Amino acid sequence: MPTPEIELLKSRSLPMLIEEEIQRVILSGQYAPGDRINEKELTLRFGTSRGPIREALRSLESSGLIEQIPNRGVFVRKLTPEQAAQIYDVRAFLFALAGRLLAMRASEQEIATLRGFVAAMDEAIAADDTDRYLRENFALHEFIVAHAANPVLAGQYLSLIKQLQLYRARNLALVDSMQVSNREHHEMVEAIAARDPDRAQAAHMAHVMSAKRRLAANAGLS
Amino acid sequence: MPTPEIELLKSRSLPMLIEEEIQRVILSGQYAPGDRINEKELTLRFGTSRGPIREALRSLESSGLIEQIPNRGVFVRKLTPEQAAQIYDVRAFLFALAGRLLAMRASEQEIATLRGFVAAMDEAIAADDTDRYLRENFALHEFIVAHAANPVLAGQYLSLIKQLQLYRARNLALVDSMQVSNREHHEMVEAIAARDPDRAQAAHMAHVMSAKRRLAANAGLS
DNA sequence: AATTGAAGATTGTCCTACAATTTTCAATTT
DNA sequence: AAATTGAAAATTGTAGGACAATCTTCAATT
């Protein structure tokens, strides 16, 4: 049976909607890394023909969430710890650029918002509310990248984040020490508030590299 | 008897081949930025049906070379000077990471190759051979990124380079002062040879930012 | 238990078809 | 002449059937 939602939202093209939905399913963990994705199953799920499905899969392949093997089909991409580490390195540099750019152009309003995120995370830590912490944490990072005013940067950063979710979804949640992490956030935000691009760049890079180390340590233990 | 063509089709699907060919045509300037790409024309050119063509176009869209507008078709992407500048910023940071990584792991062999490129460019400058300079210049950059041992980085960097070609193809070739540029190359390579990651990182970033300034200056004059 | 081989499933591609939308271009009006 | 309109033509977006090539499955055989 065709999903009614698909019918309603005609503003975006069908392959785009399908792409988003498949992506959502993958990132939510319903399809696990290594799983094969069956075209016919998708046609049944979405009530479309194979054309739009295949187009959506092509697009997802470029975004690094799936892998296509000729004559065998597409599979949810599987990341090795090494690949995850490589992504972290790139992410660190992109995030550093975001911090630098934002430090050069942040408005008072934006700085206030940034401080709000950090304060919210402090509250979450006090309340031992991990869920809230993760939400605010994500929002802060998102905000920084989005307000750096460089869509190319934002696009590449987002792509890395999605790929990392592929890794983290399975390898257990980061018991990413919230205190340490938010101390780093504090430094990032204050560097931006001080309009100090070099300091902001360094703080943002250090934050991601620190997260990388924590993840590597976790992976080592498991 | 497995002919080479058969082997080729085994590893690369038809949409992939079509994608590469369309990309080649775009980057060569046969399709200019803003041009509409007609599906039927492509089916005639490649002798295939619309399916593989559409898949290839989807993939090219993710790589940023074309733009899809619902019900209107795909167009070769057009970059504004601002977008080009944004790409340069991201590229600078990615290239800086490449320089850092290579400084940490370059073999004697690799260092010798790097020095070879720089020497070749010095020769090209002496002979006023711009074509050769550009070839060697491209090869040096390619080599550095490829040998940084981070495929994620290489992929994103390559994607940016392609997008920049979109811009430069029209906005005339960089009369990128070869002397200045190669002096920077020299510093990059010697920083790598000295196994000094910080120095290499800085040199690589400075080189791209310097190229960005030269391009902006050119754009301002035209 | 390992191997083999036939049946079934899946991918990759082509083809035709058609509704929706956009583009073209000539006729008409201002 | 310039702008507007509107019908014809072209193009996109999608469906669905078809079929060869290839892969997967699984039961029969060694």
TrEMBL record, chains A, B:
Keyword DNA-binding: yes
Domain of life: Bacteria
Assigned keywords, A-Z: DNA-binding, Transcription, Transcription regulation
Keyword Metal-binding: no
InterPro entries xref list: GntR_C, TF_FadR/GntR_C, Tscrpt_reg_HTH_GntR, WH-like_DNA-bd_sf, WH_DNA-bd_sf
Residues annotated as domain HTH gntR-type: 12-79
Annotated Pfam families: FCD (PF07729), GntR (PF00392)
Full protein name: FCD domain-containing protein
